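=== RUN LOG ===
request id: a7f3
mode: sequence -> structure
chains: 1
length: 193
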Amino acid sequence: MNSLEQRRKQILTELQSLSRQIDEMDGKIRAYLADRQHKPHPRHLEFIEKIQGYRIDSGVATRQMSTLLDNLQWKVYYSKRAWAQLWENAEAQRRTNAPHEAVITESAGPATTPEAPDAENSSRGQYSVDTLWEIQKEKHRVHGSPSGKETKTEFKKRMLKEYQKLNGQRKKNQEIVLSFDKDTRQCRLTLKD
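=== RESULT ===
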């Protein structure tokens, strides 16, 4: 039993480390795109594959681990999209010989609509409600649950209400994150330290 607990602690530590590495990867990519001659290539595609392919043995897995892994894989999925956009913008800048500084200061994610909540702090990227809706649709597809219970308009209203409530409650060191509640079959916003 002791080795099982050690393995679980090791997996939790690894998942937390991978989450930090996603945040660090954003800086590595931006640094490389700003100065390709002096900064090493970030090797972000291999990193993305590593996280997307990460599996936890069912004999060791706990609900907390499964949730952490699920959130981690969604985080890298949307970071991948943001990084691809960053890369595309950098290539466009290079083609027009414009200064690279414009690329470095761009948002790390899709633009947030005025009525949309942030899924994470702006330093980690902003997600529009449309993006959150796509996440919920994907979760329904993965979990084989019907997606017709809630319309997109209802989803937007619910997300905005949840965000406003959590934003008023959150402490300085907390983030508002999206998680999928398997019981209600809905994505929910929650606070995370």
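=== NOTES ===
The longest helix spans residues 2-34.
Strands lie at 175-181, 186-192.
=== END ===
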